[in-house]
Recover the amino acids of this structure.
């Protein structure tokens, strides 16, 4: 697959990212760029900092040092008089809508229907009218194959269906970048493929995506670039063919062996 | 028990009983509504306020919940007038019950907010909702569903606690009954009767609560 032709403009730029939880330093200088149209997978054992890196991109985690920038705009902070100043909650909320995120646990709003889950952000954040928001939401529910479930509540759907609604909810906001955080880990094995197919579809269309995944086969098929993290740092990155077939470092080789790839 | 005599006495006292009943309903309604609104605010601050605010509100709720309602009513009636706030008995009583209600609703609302998985807030943030939007569209609707049964319980407690206002001379249902009894000495009959009226009020509240529970239940 070759969809990332326009590799020149970095859409996401992460530089020297540091983050600690108390005494535990989970990110120790992460540098990563994602160009427009690129699909980048983060792999590595648990505790390596993949999910934390992803969560710093939309500021679900504050980062301690370094820069996360989307389209050249620093996320969450700005520099004034040489100091790093946290942006206002309102600015941060606006910045967050530049990215869409899909979670491991789906996190659909349980008290509203599938359709309302998708329209909520369109109405409240994008300020679309109800009719217009419904049209957009229905288009995306159609795309993920759930238009018939538009009036179902999350509790009335399977995990795979909920996750597809969650994808529709995120992407309906027309984000510049989609973040996927181990989106198939909470699913029964037979439901994994229906979710991966939707992601694969989006990749084919040129959606820029950053994925944290344990599905090595999928990472191999869908990504332009695979990034291996270990102990808060990027150890190796490159095209999937190289990363999976000819790992340079022993750590990655060991990880792939354990992942049974 | 002479039923006929009781009925004729009850008929004579009908307007006093009716007034008393109205007064009880009015006191309870104001205390429950204002107290609950205040309680939502209290719960919100207890959960999301900064550390100083949380500390202050914690003192407020713990103090109010740890004090007998009776003492609270007396305090509002006697102590507030000493510091220059002149409330009549009705106002002081309603004020005390409102504070009492707010502290209880605050605490159960806090519990409900904490029970909502953190993923709900994160999902809201991820689509760009502000905290205010998240609260009103995501957290509040879920928390209200959660507190409904406990809230109904608190509402019935308030109705029962409204009888204590008779001590400071508010002519609610119980005091009205006592005044009637002091004229005709039918204590057993009239206490039973007003007891039944209180039961009717609380039974209606519970039924109404159940109705709303069913109405807002999330289909599964």
């Amino acid at each position: 697959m070759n969809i990332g032709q326009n590799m020149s403009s970095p859409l996401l730029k992460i530089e020297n990212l540091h983050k600690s939880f108390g005494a535990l330093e989970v990110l120790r200088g992460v540098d990563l760029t994602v160009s427009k149209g690129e699909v980048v997978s983060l792999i590595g054992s648990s505790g390596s900092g993949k999910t934390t890196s992803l969560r710093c991109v939309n500021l679900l985690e504050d980062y301690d040092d370094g820069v996360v920038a989307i389209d050249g705009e620093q996320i969450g902070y700005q520099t004034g008089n040489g100091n790093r100043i946290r942006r206002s909650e309102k600015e941060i909320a606006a910045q967050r809508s530049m990215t869409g995120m899909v979670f491991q646990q789906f996190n659909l709003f349980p008290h509203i229907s599938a359709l309302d889950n998708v329209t909520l952000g369109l109405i409240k954040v994008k300020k679309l009218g109800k009719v217009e928001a419904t049209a957009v939401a229905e288009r995306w529910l159609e795309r993920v194959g759930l238009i018939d479930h538009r009036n179902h509540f999350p509790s009335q759907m399977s995990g795979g269906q909920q996750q597809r609604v969650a994808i529709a909810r995120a992407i309906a906001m027309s984000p510049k970048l989609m973040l996927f955080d181990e989106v198939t880990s909470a699913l029964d094995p037979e439901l994994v493929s229906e979710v991966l197919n939707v992601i694969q579809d989006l990749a084919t269309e040129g959606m820029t995506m950053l994925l944290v995944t344990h599905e090595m086969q999928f990472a191999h098929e869908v990504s332009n670039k695979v990034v291996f993290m270990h102990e808060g740092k990027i150890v190796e990155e490159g095209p999937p063919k190289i990363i999976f077939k000819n790992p340079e470092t022993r750590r990655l080789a060991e990880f792939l062996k354990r992942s049974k790839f | 028990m002479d039923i006929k005599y009781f009925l004729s006495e009850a008929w004579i006292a009908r307007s006093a009983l009716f007034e008393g009943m109205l007064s009880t309903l009015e006191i309870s309604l104001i205390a429950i509504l204002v107290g609950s609104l205040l309680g939502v605010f209290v719960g919100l601050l207890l959960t999301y306020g900064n550390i100083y605010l949380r500390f202050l509100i914690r003192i407020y709720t713990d103090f109010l919940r740890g004090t007998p309602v009776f003492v609270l009513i007396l305090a509002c009636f006697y102590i507030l007038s000493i510091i220059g706030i002149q409330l009549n008995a009705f106002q002081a009583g309603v004020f005390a019950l409102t504070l009492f209600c707010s502290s209880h609703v605050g605490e159960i609302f806090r519990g409900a907010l904490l029970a909502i998985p953190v993923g709900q807030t994160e999902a809201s943030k991820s689509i760009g909702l502000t905290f205010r939007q998240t609260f009103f569209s995501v957290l509040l609707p879920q928390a209200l569903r959660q507190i409904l049964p406990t809230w109904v319980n608190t509402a019935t407690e308030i109705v029962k606690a409204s009888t204590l206002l008779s001590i400071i001379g508010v002519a609610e249902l119980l005091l009205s009954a006592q005044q009637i009894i002091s004229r005709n000495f039918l204590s057993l009959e009239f206490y039973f009767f007003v007891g039944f009226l209180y039961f009717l009020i609380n039974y209606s509240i519970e039924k109404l609560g159940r109705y709303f529970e069913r109405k807002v239940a999330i289909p599964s």
User: Anything to note?
Assistant: Residues 189-204 of chain A form the longest helix (16 residues). Chain A touches chain B at residues 58-60, 89-90, 93-94, 96-97, 99-101, 103, 105, 107-112, 120-121, 124-125, 153, 155-156, 166, 169-170, 173, 179 (CB under 8 Å). The first strand of chain A starts at residue 10 and ends at 21.
